[in-house]
């Protein structure tokens, strides 16, 4: 016999049979369930805890999956997953072969739209709502749940602008907890704060100006109130916004008090909520911290330096500069397109702009990179964090396309530091002044050097480095993946080892053609190794360089033509043939 309410629920149909007065108890159980699993398996915590009541209310009131529920970003959808058939497998969340940490269409019919990147929910739900209308499905409801930080993004504004002139069954739930990963920023955030303090005056809200039926703000943790409001809105036609106020991390004291850390806290004690004691062992720094600390160092000497992040001050460590030089460091919110063009604008006025964007999120600003930066040769310094395979965030977040999508653009430099020192030195070199924009891409996590803070050295643009000499097979690598290649060589017998060389290309653009000509004359086989898509990436560039002059065999190792799922970085590198063991096996084939 089930001893709690959550045990009686597999799908929302079960939930809808539960008397409403028992729902607060269910909310408590759902919170505990999420906390217990995330405490050991890790993942996003605060956002899901904040929408427990909303999640229950939505599936209670609406007839999901016939009524369509779209989560924005999806990092807050753990409760949704648990109530829609995935309770028993929730412990596999974000692990290789397990369920995704984000809603995913292939995983469940309740996951109506795949997400991970923010601010898409209104557009997607509007598309579905207009499609329903065209199909004559008059009664179907379409609900988009969007956070206060995500609704401030350009895409969300574009969707609101369109939705406001339609007559669709679209309900936007604005989940306002006044924080993204870091505290929300901008004029809209200030407006929401005013509305919370003074209430929304009738016909005076931004949303009403855009032709939405606006209600709220209401307490998003009062489940009866939320249910009553959703029931009412079900019968209101046209586009609607319900503004709810919630607390990120609700129900776990530490998560409420330290919302930035508990956004995705890693492992913690499920009973006390405490994080494990800090590991005091000396270890190499995270690349992001090398970026953040080096930028402060450079900015202390060079007052023209500006730092820009779209909504990731903590994740990028731009926060260090924001704390020390607040006038020269900008968090522009979830606005990658704006971040790129804003950087370009400042750079035209003689400032030295470091624009830090996660590789995966730069995808959103592709036209800005081409049209606003490269076409005009504006020397913005882009630092692309989380490049390569990122691990458990999975397919939506791997930074594996940047090399391919950047290399085809004229007028830019692409550099991949293989360690912390190289990251420092290229930042130093770039701020002295380049003629072109530069894209510096580095991975999630730690580097390889304990003693990383050395005096700066200039890097010669377009130069590769020989890491190991050989005479038969060359491992041609780009950036930190060279460490896997070097380990692979070390797995060989001493006599085999002598035959294998390793060169870190460092620059994908411009290529070190002088050295490449020497290498292609010397080696029989070149194995390219990259932490990015093999299609159009470094390997492709090398094939283009070599053809038709050299008959050298070229084997390309990299991510094949698929979207890699979630798993640890090591598991995924192994799966895609770029771990040291996998590279070793490939070398053996060609030896
Ligand atoms: C395009 C894009 N940029 C940045 C991110 C990183 N990111 C994930 S969640 C998040 C904050 C979302 O805040 P909000 O919408 O308020 O939701 P909450 O976490 O408060 O529920 C950010 C910036 C992203 N997922 N997508
Ligand atoms: C949901 C989302 O997009 C972010 O929370 C992302 O997971 C952050 O990644 P990092 O943990 O690498 O900063
Ligand atoms: Mg928020």
UniProtKB/TrEMBL annotation:
Any one Gene Ontology molecular-function term assigned to this protein's record: 1-deoxy-D-xylulose-5-phosphate synthase activity
The Transketolase-like pyrimidine-binding domain, residue ranges: 285-449
InterPro entries found in the cross-reference section: Dxylulose-5-P_synthase, THDP-binding, Transketo_C/PFOR_II, Transketolase-like_Pyr-bd, Transketolase_BS, Transketolase_C
Pathway(s) per entry: Metabolic intermediate biosynthesis; 1-deoxy-D-xylulose 5-phosphate biosynthesis; 1-deoxy-D-xylulose 5-phosphate from D-glyceraldehyde 3-phosphate and pyruvate: step 1/1
Cofactor binding comment, as recorded: Binds 1 Mg(2+) ion per subunit. Binds 1 thiamine pyrophosphate per subunit.
CDD domains per the UniProt record, alphabetical: TPP_DXS, TPP_PYR_DXS_TK_like
The protein's required cofactors: Mg(2+); thiamine diphosphate
Keywords recorded for this protein, A-Z: Isoprene biosynthesis, Magnesium, Metal-binding, Thiamine biosynthesis, Thiamine pyrophosphate, Transferase
Binding site for thiamine diphosphate: 75, 116-118, 149-150, 177, 336
Complex formation: Homodimer.
Protein name per its UniProtKB record: 1-deoxy-D-xylulose-5-phosphate synthase
